[in-house]
Amino acid sequence: MVQYLVFLTISTGLYALFALGLNLQWGFTGLINFGHVAFMTIGAYTTVLLSLGGVPIFFAVIVGIVGASLLGLLMGASTLRLREDYLAIVTIGVAEFLRLVAQNEEWLTKGNFGIQSYPLPFGSFQPNFAGKLMMIFILTFLAIFVIWRLFINIKKQLKGGKEIQGKSFQFSKARDVYIKGFITFLLVLITYINGVIALYNYTYKSGLMLLMLIALVGVYYGLDLLVHSPWGRVLKAIREDEEIPRALGKNIFWYKLQAFMLGGAIAGLAGSFYAWQFTTIYPSSFESLITFNAWIIIVVGGAGNNAGTILGSVIFWAYESLTRFISDNYDFITTAQLSSLRMMIIGLVLMVLIVSRPQGILGKKGELSLGK
């Protein structure tokens, strides 16, 4: 059970990291990207191929991130001045093009046979007792930091709600804030306890889990600072009506390009973790379904809300795990039927959610054009 929870933690963090890049592009800037997996493909293959060539893993990851960002530059420079539907078409085409290149250029990617036996972070690392304690200390620091930030956010939400609504600030709304905070605290606590056990009984996946959490926390709070800065406010203005910031003298194309490149760089980092988690990569590992899973995560959690993206990833993987147990414990449904049933249920949930709460679970309806 501990190792399965480690797998869920890595998978949830990986998809959350991937979706954070898409949320920056669409949720905050309004750029429709249906080929987000292209950036993950560049990040994964660049990291793996360079590390196989003897480049240290850290530098291989940096090059993968830069490569994904440059892909965003090329895609954005050719389409962002045009209508939004051109960007959607180009991103899908580029993602499929890269997948086909990985499939057919066997001299480089080994095609459908996939790339195996490449260097992994902590791949041969066997910590002693002091090393395990150091890793547990780092995990403890992360947990304390997340809980501290959670406490600050709860105070801000309560104070902001009272200032806006005055005496009409209802108890039910304060209760919702506390409930969301308690659920988040509970998830952090479960992850921390399981992480401590996993790190004490160290395996490769335990070390990867810690690295994944460090990257996720760093990217999340880095984005949080950016989107609440003047730069982030310009992105939101572009999402709502780009003519207004243009009238104020803002270079709309440059802001869009920056958001697209940064979102692609984050997805490139997610690609490195994707390769490390599965220890083998195939062209079929980068199909468009991964992009649409990220869209599901954002829609469920709330577009334009990074915390909602994390929550959406948690819900997505909780749903995936529960439905897998159905196929393991019952004989009345086959694997193929279960896969179809999963998609049907996800579609139904999305339909109900969009009708009843279009802004998602944590999104703010007043910030979105679809809520007006």
TrEMBL record:
Please name the InterPro entries in this protein's record.
Answer: ABC_transp_permease, LivM-like
Q: Which species is this UniProt entry from? A: Cyanobacterium stanieri LEGE 03274
**Could you tell me the membrane topology recorded for this protein?**
Multi-pass membrane protein
Membrane spanning segments where?
6-24, 31-51, 57-74, 86-102, 129-152, 177-202, 208-231, 252-274, 294-319, 340-356
Keywords from UniProt, A to Z, are: Cell membrane, Membrane, Transmembrane, Transmembrane helix
Q: What is the lineage of its organism?
A: Bacteria, Bacillati, Cyanobacteriota, Cyanophyceae, Oscillatoriophycideae
Q: Can you name this protein?
A: Branched-chain amino acid ABC transporter permease
- Where found in the cell? Cell membrane
